[in-house]
# Entry
Amino acid sequence: MKVLMFTWEFPPLISGGLGTACYGIVKGLLKQGVEVDLVLPTREEVYFPMRTESDVDTLPVKFLSPSKEIEFTNTVFKTSREKFEFVGVSSVPESYISMKEVSTFYEYFENFTERYDYKSKVPFREVLNNIMGSENIFEKVKEFTLRAQRYAQSLEYDIIHAHDWLTYPAGIIAKTVSGKKLVCHIHATEFDRAGGAGDIRIHNIEYSGMTDADAVIAVSRYTAEMVISRYLIDTAKIRVVHNAHNIDIQEFENKKRLFKDPVVLFLGRITLQKGPDYFLEAARIILEKYPKVRFIMAGAGDMEKKIVHKSAKYRLKNRFLFTGFLNGTHVAEMFSNSDIYVLSSVSEPFGIAPLEAMSYSLATIISKQSGVAEVIQNAIKVDFWDVKLLSDHIIELIEKPDYRKKLGAAGRHEVELIKWDKACTEIIDVYTKTVKR
# Structure
């Protein structure tokens, strides 16, 4: 089976859990003999090593340079069993270079859909309205969508797989062109990201994508229930496939710890969804009793300035530290230098970071309002708003180092069993059943 896959992130172009999840999914699919053409919104050539599951062969993976236009046949990852290709997006929007025959963006798509006699379950103009906007992100989504037509016409594949709202319009275009079935993967909804109503355009794109999709993969039951209740998507086409984590520990045994004192870590985007303010409030309570504990907030986001100012207001000084955005070995080093990991998310569709933390034997506390809470047992679970209980659990872990180590070891053992192989077997099952319908 061959898959045309659209995603907005993939290592090293990554800013969060979406890229990490897509990396695990692609590697797992390749291992099971599925071929993948991966379409990314790349703007430049990037080279990086991609290791096989056996961790023996290291081969270069190449993003096609925008200047090379459309060299689809460039194979960039290949063994006797696997094939992996990246397809880039041109640096010039389609609407500016090949739309002379029509006067507007809307006319182009109306003619396009009439030519293919495609009857969307949602009016196509509505989909287009959703991606029209002056903000840069919507312009990028528009360009990505326009380029999808060319890829969909030029590549051979059996099914289409689109990840999150940014690529749903591209998935619909590919389905229109090819007549192939579309699988939409929902990693997070706008309700999760915004902590409320959010941007109506994104909601509409999410609704359009999941409505037109032949199958919808949700990363947790928590997310599936939101998709059903908020978007009224047909339950018959929703399948829950939990994320996973293949342990690839980068040990820092020869490095000294950054701090002798216990370190409590928050690692994620500093946004409303992730609940950084609840983590800060817990730190304030704990530092009144244990002034030598170190709290580290690793990440970046729109709430960063607010949290920095609030930390200064509480006079937490160098006991509450900010690292900014971390990637690669810096993330591994941060896990290696921490004792306790906290996921304080207000609404977390899944949450891969806790699995990463547990793989480093960190005692882990997670929000009950997270999908990852459905699959792990050896972590402490609290409601995101219960700062007092969160503080009590952190204090207990600080006061009882043996319990902390025992919980960390049990978590590590549990995560070893949560592999992408199983998740990808379930995804392939979704492909197979969807293609046959």
Q: What stands out?
A: The CA atoms of residues 335 and 357 lie 6 Å apart.
